[in-house]
Amino acid sequence: MQSTSPSSNALPLAESPAPRRGLGSAWMIVAAMLFALMGIFVKQGAQSFTPIELVFWRTLFGVLMLGLPACMHGQRFVTLHLKVHLVRGCTGYVALLLMFYAMAHLPLATAITLNHTSPMFLALLSVLWLKERFSGRMAAALALGFVGVALLLRPSMGGDLWFYGLVGLASGAMSGIAYLHVRELGQLGEPEWRVVFYFALLSTVLGAALVTCTGWHSLTLHNIGPLVGIGLTATLGQLAMTRAYKVGRKLVAANLSYLTVVFSSLLGALLWGDKLSLESYAAIMLILCSGIVASRR
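and the corresponding structure tokens:
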């Protein structure tokens, strides 16, 4: 998530005047590239660290990058909605952990596509939990998306890859749940930085506890690079995405976020020779189209 994306932790803001909307698109393209690069560093880091450790270092970086400036500017850390933050933090942490597991074992474009099913799950959960209206267009979009998922997770994928494909799909489902609570926090008036900060803080604490139980790997000059790369790309991508929603059109920014899949596919092919079948690319297109429609509800 991313995550996020998790993927997105940004909260949609009021649309800006027309001259600045182009900047919103540019910022989202930058964010998409940064999140794709994060995936590269995750796969490299998985050679030396467990996904639990990678998530810990990624979120610790976020705590420092958000917490220190907040302290310097005298921001208020106390919240009246701690329970919602805890639920959002736990679901977001699980989503991020599952996404990193999938990234470590699947072709990068496949793992990120499965995580990008979150808008589909968010739309479905909004109907089931929040009793929102379920239009015919939304039903068709979700059906199309889940057909894409079935194609992408076809049995011919193989035993281990099939399992990690389900892990990636679970990350999308958990991200959808997390975004419900992100939206709730936005409606309660929580500022964006505090929503992201509490998520990073809780994830870091949970990660430290889990890694202490499973064991730490030593940091060396040879393996620290991917950790720094994950922290930088994730944090800068988060900032770029937040800026995109702030100065651009919400729907345009949301749709451009799917460029992460495109960039990931290109980088995976360039660095590791990842070659997906035409059936897989067709499945990815179905999922992305479904997500775009779902984000317009």
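(Above: one complete record from the training split.) The first helix runs from residue 18 to 45.
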